[in-house]
Amino acid sequence: MAQVLKTHWMNTLGYAGLIPFLGLAVLTGVFSGTETASALAQYNLIYALCIVSFLGAVHWGLAISLLNQEQPAYLAGLDQAAFETRSFIWGVTPSLLAWLAGSFSPPEYTLWILAVILAFVWRVDQRMLKPMKAFEQYLKLRNHLTLGAIAGLLLTACFA
Fold it and tell me: Do the Cβ atoms of 152 and 24 come closer than 8 Å?
């Protein structure tokens, strides 16, 4: 029961976060070929930019939470300096990738690029966080959420 309570809000809010991705994809399909579809696709794009930035922030939160511990449990096999460097640098990388995609890619390709960025961020997070047993539930959830987000973006791109 304790594990259910610990992950309740993570799961509830995580899965609720798929509603914009999938809902906007469906609505874009309903209004396909119209200005409304273009606007809905833009909303999904903006939401994806926010989510990609959020995913990087997880690493900043992790590094900050371990800064002042006497004996931090760096379970990824790194010393404190290497762990903090890796976490802080990777923590800003998804935001920068999203910004580059949103600012400099042609609009008709940005949803596709963001789907690729989500897959890339998922892969890096799997490699970085998997050695840390504390992230097991988070990574399991991320598998579902990333798949749903990518599906929503790709469907939106097809219908936009």
Answer: yes
